[in-house]
Amino acid sequence: MTVSSDASTPAYTIRIAKALADVDAAAWDSCANPPDSAHDPADEAQKERFNPFISYAFLNACETSGSAIARTGWSPMHVLVEDSAGALVACAPCYMKTHSMGEYVFDYAWADAYERAGGRYYPKMQVSAPFTPAQGRRLLVRPGEGADNARAALIAGLKAVRAKTGASSIHITFPLKSECDALEDADFMSRTGKQFHFFNRGYKTFDDYLADLASRKRKVVKRERRDALASDIEIHRLTGADITEEHWDAFFHFYVDTGSRKWGQPYLTRAFFSDIGATMADRILLVMARRNGKWIAGAINFIGDDALYGRNWGAVEHHPFLHFEVCYYQAIEFAIERGLSRVEAGAQGEHKLARGYAPVTTWSSHFLADKGFARAVVGFLQQEREAISDAIEVYGEHVPFRRDLSREESE
Q1: Which residue among 124, 362, 403, 404 is buried most deeply as judged by most CB within 10 Å?
Q2: 113-139 residues labelled b (16+ CB within 10 A) or e (exposed)
Q3: pLDDT tens for each residue of 265-308
Q4: pTM of the predicted model, to two decimals?
Q5: pLDDT for 61-115, tens place per residue?
């Protein structure tokens, strides 16, 4: 389907793909994760290197596995910008949503208020990596001459699709701050959130990280790691060809059991894990816990060039501190060994603060077609930004690092 927009000139055509399988994989990845040689160091949006969640392999697996499809309320509606030769120069992973689940930027109150006022909030457009609260580029533009124009065409294309479909709004979740700034020029509203990330301060070993902690916090971490394995629990870190269908079977069992108790219905199907295991195993770290020869818990992480992204966790046995060991400490240790700059451990979780994860600001961008409704939301967003800024400042005063180290960083 081709969509007309103000940005559609002889140089650009806006097209919609209702399945990622209709898009050439190499063309998509040339926009999403271009090779290092194609990066422009002066372009802030390109400073982020490989991000697994905008890769063709990840997004396609969400669809082919039956996880992000119309039946689950995620109808693919990917927006493509092609040049006069038909080459893909920009794209955005976009979905028509009939609910607000699996997004991690909550707009339930917006939907309720708008519908109480007589409006129809759904369907809405969601530009995101499905079920993934990880920061990264969302306006995927192939580097090179004309990139700024291609991005402008992509933004105009998103708005044109919204107008054509009658969707109430466009929501771009967890983009880069620079993308939010560009979107504000197109009448999008910026929204902030918070997460907790671990930052590698040039550590060579986990003990180097421990040495930076205040003495009392260091003792707590050592005790938690020791107690987590007290019941003869073994930890296995698996990546690449070491991950088998047996591991995926066990992990999916953990994921379903935990997900059913937390939010009612797990988002990802069993096929999703086989799909990514077949196409991007080298970008996956599976941390599994075993006791008496039986797998009892696990966490899946995705490996970027600069970051480790913690995603899902599950367990069928409860053991004190096992969650912290499998999800947080193993991730920190792996990131240090790989020389990764940070660990993003997912949404929320103030308990991460005591384990060396620092508060950071996250971003999202929102376009509401109803101008009256948009004006009402602006005030809410301002209050929310102030509250989040205050919370991050307070959290920053409670990081577990030595006072001398914290003082050095604040100077």
Answers
A1: 124
A2: bbeeeeeebbbbbbbbbbbbbbbbbbb
A3: 789 999 999 999 999 999 999 999 999 999 999 999 999 999 99
A4: 0.93
A5: 999 999 999 999 999 999 999 999 999 999 999 999 999 999 999 999 999 999 9
Are 188 and 170 contacting, i.e. CB atoms less than 8 angstroms apart?
Answer: yes
Residue 172 has a CB neighbour count (10 Å cut-off) of 27
Distance CA 62, CA 81 (A): 22
What tokens were used for 353? 């603060």
Place of tokens 């987590």: 228
Half-sphere exposure of 342 (CA within 13 A, CB side): 17
Phi, psi of 405 (to 5 degrees): -70, -45
Question: Pick from 20, 32, 69, 25: which is nearest to 268 by CA?
Answer: 69
Classify 231 as helix, strand or coil.
Answer: coil
Per-residue confidence band for 4, with pLDDT thresholds at 50, 70 and 90 = low
What does the block give as tokens for 38? 């194609």
